[in-house]
Design a protein that fits this description.
The complex is a heterodimer. Chain A is α+β, with helices and mostly antiparallel strands. Chain A has a domain at 30-92: Alpha-Beta Plaits, CATH 3.30.70.20. In chain A, 10% of the residues lie in helices and 22% in strands. The relative contact order of chain A is 0.25. Chain B is α/β, with parallel strands linked by helices. Chain B contains 13 helices and 16 strands. Chain B has helices spanning 7-17, 32-43, 57-69, 80-85, 87-95, 120-123, 138-152, 182-188, 216-245, 270-284, 302-308, 329-339, 361-377, and strands at 2-6, 22-25, 50-53, 74-79, 101-106, 131-134, 161-166, 174-178, 204-206, 253-256, 263-267, 289-294, 296-298, 314-319, 347-351, 383-385. In chain B, the strands form three sheets. In chain B, strands 3-2-4-5-7-6-13 form a seven-stranded mixed sheet, with helices on both faces. In chain B, helix 1 packs across helix 2, helix 3 (57-69) packs parallel to helix 5 (87-95) and helix 10 packs across helix 13 (361-377). The longest helix of chain B is centred in the middle third of the chain and has 30 residues, at 216-245. The N and C termini of chain B lie far apart (53 Å). Classes of the chains: A alpha+beta, B alpha/beta. The A-B interface holds A 7, 9-10, 13-23 and B 95-98, 155, 158, 196, 203-208, 210, 215-216, 218-219, 221-222, 225-226.
Chain lengths: 96, 396
């Protein structure tokens, strides 16, 4: 991860609003979620449709398998909708 | 090579000569033949470009934004309701500092439906951060598109540019246009190679959130700063263009017989080329009249107008659109530009040519007559609707 630049004036910042990936790290937004995607790996065919469909890059591809980043996943359910073998379950979040 | 072509085809040739790498296309009268011709160029292999057919003008601009963000030179064309539908994305293109060039065919806004010349479409986009250029001839359309790319892609400018031409008067009228060889254009316009771009090798995120205490205000100031730089560059590049191609167009403004003029008219687009004829006719009759043609409405030529109008005894401004509840927008801005200057001549605003109503040389000669009346008898009505059927009501 790149360190945050020390901007002081308008002269220091790039011409357009730009930040260095992954700027969302350290800024978790998973708490917005109402439903949590749970991938049942026994039926997973490793097609990566969930990874491709995630609008927030919150599914990582690790050892040829999807892994949900619950720090960033906001529970939109696109992965579950796209999954061709219906192996992603949207589970209601409950306060422990 | 000299060709007899319409304003629309001229814009297509310009985009080809500039080697636009991505063209997003959605048809709208009277722009459609611009993107049709580009489709022909691409399908025949004459032009190497990614041609994207989209479902709306909003999407056309979104496609240009994405393509420019990865570093492609982009072009699109629109008109009227298409431009108005793009409005949100126009803000985005400028805020993201993407040097997209777009031809806009100035056409009236409905209702009632009208496809004829009127500047309401582009005037409504005044505050989006786009540079706006207005053309008086097909040749100027071609030349301004080339100049627009050269100015807007400079690293300290990086702003989108809209090149405007009047519906039908240019878009569908054939004129002799000197179409340069692409090698001549290559020598003038280097390839687009932005430092800041989407690049999977060097990931960055563009256009995310900035809070009130962060740098949002600074990024907005940077757009203003870039406009100031662009004003300087547009004048320099107009001179460079003249040296390279041999065609002078003026700078942000084009002054016609203003040096000793008592009555000066300010106008944009094809009304200004007609006004030149009116100036010649009036001069032949011994009247010292002149014309200032605004080429760049954004960046606005405040200093240039102060200089050009400093000797005028009376100034008129012709507007082909109207801000309801006020007056013509060009009138407002020209007046404001003189307020803190050395000279403050009396000024009259003329709302004229709305919805494509003809603006003849004789119409404009009549406006010069009104300016002389203002000199003799004082400024009566500050804003007038010209060639209105029936007298205007309301306070003078």
């Amino acid at each position: 991860m790149v360190d945050r630049p020390d901007y002081r004036t308008w002269r220091d910042v790039p011409p357009m609003p730009v930040c260095w990936y992954p700027s969302a790290l350290g800024n978790p937004t998973g708490g917005w979620r109402t439903y949590r995607p749970v991938i049942h790996m026994d039926k997973c065919i490793h097609c990566a449709q969930c990874w491709q469909g995630c609008p927030d890059a919150a599914i990582h591809w690790v050892d040829d398998s999807p892994e949900v980043d619950y720090e960033q996943c906001k529970g939109c359910g696109i992965c579950a909708h796209e999954c061709p073998v219906d192996t992603i379950e949207m589970v209601l979040e409950v306060k422990e | 090579m000299r060709k007899v072509i319409t304003g629309n085809y001229t814009a297509s040739y310009a985009a080809k000569l500039c080697r636009a790498e991505v063209v997003a296309a959605y048809p709208i009268t009277p722009q459609t033949s611009i993107v049709e011709k580009l489709a022909e160029f691409v399908s025949s292999g004459e032009m190497k470009s990614q041609y994207i057919k989209v479902e709306s003008e909003h999407s056309a601009m979104a496609a240009c934004i994405s393509a420019a963000q990865v570093g492609a030179r982009t072009f699109t064309a629109t008109s009227s309701h298409g431009l108005v539908l793009m409005h949100e994305m126009l803000h985005w293109a400028a805020g993201a500092r993407l040097p997209i060039v777009m031809a806009n065919v100035n056409r009236a806004i409905a209702p009632p439906w009208s496809v004829w010349a009127d500047h309401t479409d582009s005037m409504s986009q005044r505050d989006t951060g786009w540079m706006q250029f207005y053309c008086e001839s097909n040749q100027e359309v071609l030349d301004t598109i080339i100049m627009a790319y050269r100015v807007c892609e400079q690293p300290d400018v990086l702003l989108p540019a809209m090149v405007n031409m009047d519906a039908f008067i240019l878009s569908h009228t054939s004129e002799v246009v000197n179409v340069p060889d692409i090698k001549e254009v290559d020598a003038f316009l280097p390839p687009f190679s932005p430092e800041w771009r989407l690049d999977i090798e060097h990931p960055k995120s563009f256009g995310s959130l900035a809070g009130p205490a962060s740098f949002y205000m600074e990024w907005r100031y940077k757009i203003q700063h870039a406009m100031d730089v662009a004003a300087k560059r547009f004048k320099e590049e107009s001179r460079a263009f003249e040296r390279h191609f041999g065609r002078p167009w003026g700078g942000l403004i084009d002054c016609y017989r203003t040096a000793d003029a008592d009555a000066v008219m300010v106008a944009m687009g094809t009304m200004a080329s007609t006004a030149k004829q009116a100036v010649d006719d009036m001069r032949d009759k011994g009247h010292r009249v002149g014309l200032v043609r605004i080429r760049a409405f954004r960046p606005f030529p405040t200093a240039d107008l102060r200089e050009a109008l400093k000797g005028a005894k009376v100034v008129g401004v012709m507007d082909r659109s109207h801000t309801f509840g006020h007056e013509g927008p060009v009138f407002t801005e020209v007046k404001a530009s003189l307020y803190n200057g050395a000279a403050r001549p009396p000024m009259a605003g003329f709302t004229v040519g709305i919805g494509g109503r003809d603006v003849l040389d004789t119409t404009i000669a009549g406006l010069y007559g009104r300016l002389y009346d203002a000199l003799d008898r004082g400024l009566g009505r500050e804003v007038s609707w010209i060639d209105l059927k029936g007298d205007e009501e309301g306070v003078a």
